[in-house]
Amino acid sequence: MPSNDARNLLQCAVPTAAAGAIVVAVSAAVAGGKGALGAAVGTLLAILFMGIGLYVLQWTAKTLPQLFQAMGLMLYVAQLLLLLIFVALFKDTSLFNAKAFAVALVVATVVWMAAQARAYMKAKIFYVDPDSAKSEKTEKTGPSS
Predict the structure, then answer these.
(1) What is the mean pLDDT of the chain?
(2) Are 25 and 144 in contact (CB under 8 A)?
(3) Spatial separation of the C-alpha atoms in residues 130 and 128, rounded to whole Å
(4) For the CA atoms of the chain, what is the radius of gyration?
(5) In whole angstroms, what is the distance from residue 91 CA to residue 102 CA?
(6) Which of 32, 35, 53, 114 gives a 20 to 30 Å CA spacing to 46?
(7) Is residue 131 part of a domain?
(8) Which among 60, 63, 80, 81 is positioned nearest to 72, based on CA atoms?
(9) Is residue 59 part of a domain?
(10) How far apart are CA 103 and CA 98, in angstroms?
(11) pLDDT (tens digit, 9 = 90+) per residue, 79-118?
């Protein structure tokens, strides 16, 4: 993974993990151990889904830029479907508190999206490739008169 991609991933994952730790602490105080476990599972699931999604989108942008928008839409639909499957499988579980799980999942997702927006606003992304401008000036395609 190139350093810029890793930097974007870290700029999203670290604030999300910090917000998740706060939600885990609050859930532990409100709902006990099962609340803390539910919040931890929700936070980890959000970081996992969003991290994989960011990696796939960055890979698509570099290798298949013509499919970037379609891949983004497909990826978000796939994430929602996988989350729906996970929630359906653990709907009646007694392993963790479902409300703490839901709150942590929503908080982690919102924090990830805000951190991702901030990371892209702060990124120094070239609009024009400076190397291609240099090579175009040195080449002569027509007769010089």
Answers:
(1) 85
(2) no
(3) 6
(4) 21
(5) 11
(6) 32
(7) no
(8) 60
(9) yes
(10) 9
(11) 889 888 988 888 888 889 989 999 999 999 999 999 988 9
Most confident of 2-11, 13-22, 130-139: 13-22
Residue 8 identity (one-letter amino acid): N
What are the residues whose beta carbons fall under 8 Å from the beta carbon of 72, sequence distance 6 or more? Answer: 57, 60
* Domain contains 142: no
Structure tokens at 2: 């190139």
Q: What is the pTM of this model?
A: 0.77
Q: How far is residue 58 from each of residues 24, 61, 80, 90, measured CA to CA in Å?
A: 30, 5, 19, 31
Could you read off the pLDDT of 42-68 as tens digits, one per residue? 999 999 999 998 888 888 888 888 888
Domain count for the chain:
1
Range of the structural domain that residue 100 is part of = 3-122
Residue 130 in any domain: the answer is no
